[in-house]
Amino acid sequence: METPGTDRLTRQEQAQQTRQRLFDAAYSLLQEKDFKDITIGDIVSRAGVSTGTFYLYYASKLDVYYQTYVLSDAYFLSEVAPRVQQGDTRERLLIYFASYAYYNSDYSRIKLTRLLYNGENRNFLRRGEGMHTVLEAIVAHGLQAGELDRALTVEAHCDLLMDMARGLVYRWCISDGAFPLADAMRSAISRLYRALAAPGR
Amino acid sequence: METPGTDRLTRQEQAQQTRQRLFDAAYSLLQEKDFKDITIGDIVSRAGVSTGTFYLYYASKLDVYYQTYVLSDAYFLSEVAPRVQQGDTRERLLIYFASYAYYNSDYSRIKLTRLLYNGENRNFLRRGEGMHTVLEAIVAHGLQAGELDRALTVEAHCDLLMDMARGLVYRWCISDGAFPLADAMRSAISRLYRALAAPGR
Amino acid sequence: METPGTDRLTRQEQAQQTRQRLFDAAYSLLQEKDFKDITIGDIVSRAGVSTGTFYLYYASKLDVYYQTYVLSDAYFLSEVAPRVQQGDTRERLLIYFASYAYYNSDYSRIKLTRLLYNGENRNFLRRGEGMHTVLEAIVAHGLQAGELDRALTVEAHCDLLMDMARGLVYRWCISDGAFPLADAMRSAISRLYRALAAPGR
Amino acid sequence: METPGTDRLTRQEQAQQTRQRLFDAAYSLLQEKDFKDITIGDIVSRAGVSTGTFYLYYASKLDVYYQTYVLSDAYFLSEVAPRVQQGDTRERLLIYFASYAYYNSDYSRIKLTRLLYNGENRNFLRRGEGMHTVLEAIVAHGLQAGELDRALTVEAHCDLLMDMARGLVYRWCISDGAFPLADAMRSAISRLYRALAAPGR
DNA sequence: AATGAATGAGCCTTCATTCAT
DNA sequence: TATGAATGAAGGCTCATTCAT
Q1: Which domains are seen in chain D, by residue range?
Q2: DSSP code string of B11-66
Q3: What is the pLDDT of residues A125-156, one digit of tens each?
Q4: What is d(CA C42, CA C51) in angstroms, rounded to the nearest whole number?
Q5: What is the CA B6 to C1' F10 distance in angstroms?
Q6: What is the pTM of this model?
Q7: Which of A199, B76, C91, D79 is deepest in the core (most CB within 10 A)?
Q8: A121 to each of A114, A117, B106, how far by Cα in Å?
Q9: E3 C1' – C138 CA distance, angstroms?
């Protein structure tokens, strides 16, 4: 017999743990396959709980993936943002995209973004705001500092950078991770930077 | 009254038209969603034929998409290749990626490549050889002519260019074609070219 | 240009030939697989005609098999019956079942019988009358001649003989024809005869 | 109010019952039609459950029939074998085939055997070993005891007996059970025994 | 007489979701 | 809180049959 207090706390903790286990299972599966290929069965068996339990914590299959989205935004705002407050723009971009390579190294991010943007779900989120906000800040600062080419808008810079990064991650993914993504990312962003840097610098 | 000869041709033509309608329907759907999300029902209803008819022309869902792959390779080798035999490298790249934007404008290409590279299908094709070959030729020529940066290999140039192109197409796709892809492609490749051009040119 | 007369005859002959080709194709397929597993496609491709042509000669898939049934009855009445008019009962039975082994050596007969007896088709034929009639005649004669055991009715004799024959053919079939059916049939009927012969003979 | 223990058992029992209902439905359908003609829809509607439920208990349509095969073998080894350890050979055979008529009364057994022997499944079982073993033991004993005809091998005895039994069951089946199978089986085996008994007994 | 393109009902199987326990 | 049995809509694919040519 446990004390009521301990018991209640344990219960809450257990619940949180179960929720986390489900989340981790779902997230790790996304590294391995497409959303469509992941079944509730996959998730719960990896999490070690029963089917019904899943629906105790998440409203649907999509819901749990929506959570991963929310989390990664939080990660960028809380972890990455502070680390790109100093140094020149090139350096900041390299740090930013190293994080991108690290956290979103899987193209599951792409799959997920697309998924969440699709159809009826379109409304329930406004694209990776956290992630985007951080990048925009770097670029805005770079323009202000005269490091980036003022012939391009903030948005244009971001697009070029993100397009390259996504394309690279995609290639890394279809190659089954055949090359070191971090290095490739550094090279690519570094090289692209030459095309973005303010003329004469 | 038609001649018998014409008559027979009409039948064949009709069949070919149906086949094409199915192909187009499948292909256009791929611009909109993932292979996994496309159903035979989607394809046939867009093509305006019945379920059974689909299987008259294609052996399976995968088959029709494999055809798109084969066709695009042929397109690059026969149509695009001749058009990038002259002009400077920058111009050639712009033409090449304009074709890429036009023909493969969708990221369906990406999805398809991934699809075909996957699992058991991995063996039955070696990645978009036609398309790749043409790009490699442009880059090789550009290096030889001293227009591109010799610090990068042919392969590295191709990767950077393709990553950017794919990333852009991907964004265009998830935006539901919200911006003119051709223009964006031209801008992006043009800008990236600055980072690839031989120093001092 | 052919003469009209020749032409018309040729046409009729051709039609008959086509009909026969379809019949043969259908029948031979029944030796190889179940009715359910045989497709119109199988039949017409083996017959070397088009799908539509099949329906010019037979109303349905079932129809063509009904014809095989009718034919085998005719075979027993016209070919076998005359050959069992003399000799002792044992000999007659051996001849009868040799024919059975020969003509129905495939268990397609069984499959077909079952098929035709089934469901809605039940009405359109009364069991292999030709075949049965011949056997009944042999048995009736054997009883009259005092060669068979009068403790058993004609029907009982026929049932025992047919059960044995069918069971044997079935085993031969599932063994993929691993043993000579004709010999096995002769042995089995011959042995069974001992149990049917009038006591004291 | 039930105790928790009882409660859990009830759930399990219910599941087992559902499984059994599906099994029975499938098995009884096999008495009526060919494997190929039986649909999952037939099975589940007879069992009174939904389509999905079927796949909760059996991996495929073939699977459920494989189970019937396994079970009947077990039945013969555990139930029938002990009951044929005494009495004369004739009596043993009558008991054996009464069981055959009872448990495998349908020719579904035949169809199933054929089915399981077919194609890829050929390897996964060695024909009705349980059932066969028991019969062979009876015959071997009968030969040793001088009750059966030594001019025939064990195998030959078994074949004749099984052919007759199968043929009879087949006829019973296509007659829609128009006569009492048990009686007919007894008569047939009893009669056939006369042809197998050692001469002079 | 012959063709073969087109049809669509029907089959097997999967899986997200519900709900009684 | 946790379970897992049950559901049924939906998907890919087959094939007997029809009909315009």
Answers
A1: 6-64 (1.10.357.10), 66-196 (1.10.357.10)
A2: HHHHHHHHHHHHHHHHHHHHHHS-GGG--HHHHHHHHT--HHHHHHH-SSHHHHHH
A3: 344 566 788 889 999 999 999 999 999 999 99
A4: 10
A5: 43
A6: 0.65
A7: B76
A8: 10, 6, 21
A9: 50
